[in-house]
Amino acid sequence: MKLARIERSSQEIESLALAVSKHPELIMKTKNIMGVSVPRIEGFGIHRNLNEKGFGYVDLPAALLEAADAYEELVDYVVLAAEVETSMKKILLEIDHTKRRVNALEYRLIPQMQSVQSFIQLRLEEIERETVFRTKLIKKRLA
Asked: pTM, whole model, 2 decimals?
């Protein structure tokens, strides 16, 4: 852009930029990564040939064409960066949720279940001892 501004005035460059008739289109879709719905952004019409750019061939600075191509490439990278950043944020958020669930299981629910298991086991052993005692008592009375 600096080279183009050296050759032409800022007003001429702005008027050429305003001559662009077609703007890039972005289509948002979703994809599934390990159960997490993340966006998929597709850009259409970002890279255009000279006819589609909206300005003519006559007296056009080469630096302006290079700048336009560089901006198109930059837009491509921005779209990719937006998709990757949003995907990473959603996946990290889901990892945090899963981490909380695992901690709840590991430090609360599993110890509670183990406590209940040991109580039930002790109670069953006690019932078994009572049954054995009653059986011996009944055998003694019958004999």
From this structure: 0.63
Q: Provide the sign of the torsion angle of the four alpha carbons 114, 115, 118, 119, taken in this order.
A: negative
Tens of pLDDT, residues 35-45: 889 989 887 76
Q: Which two tokens stand for residue 102?
A: 């695992």
Whole-Å CA distances, 83 to 86, 92, 115, 123: 5, 14, 47, 58
Using one digit for the tens of pLDDT, what is the confidence trace for 17-26? 666 667 778 8
In whole angstroms, give the CA distance from residue 93 to residue 27. Answer: 24
Q: What is the 3-state secondary structure (H, E, C) of 2-29?
A: HHHHHHCCHHHHHHHHHCCCCCCEEEEE
Torsion on CA atoms 113, 114, 118, 120, rounded to nearest 10: 20
